[in-house]
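Trying the structure run again after the queue cleared.
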Amino acid sequence: MEKLKMIFRVLKKLFGRKEQSENADAVTSLPPIHFSCITLVSTTPSNSQIGFNDFFVVEYKGKKYWTLFQCPCGCGEIISLSLQDEHDNTWQVVKSKHNRPTLHPSVWQNQGCCSHFILTDGRIYWCGNTGSPPDLYDEVE
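Done. Tokens:
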């Protein structure tokens, strides 16, 4: 009986490790880098100047005003987000050690493609509800 228990422990150990490493590979697999760098500009680029993998931050006299980029779904829509605290809806751009953008909070297009994604270290993480319009609530009176 002891030999059977020992064989069972060895098999469990061998198969348990394999299963864990397969799961670890799935967890550590990252999406490709979509935005490889942040381009700082002092004036807002025209829509025709913004390529599919371009990520612009408009900064003037040390203050960040806007970020502009094409929607990563491929629809071609230019997304322009305010980085100004004075605005009701505002985002923050953080530069990684590789000069790639991280954007907070997520982006959810409320019309057109209705893409919903998180941008971290230049990588796009699609949210499960992408393609669905966000719930827009009327003000409660």
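The chain is about 20% helix and 30% strand. Worth checking whether this holds up in the mutant runs.
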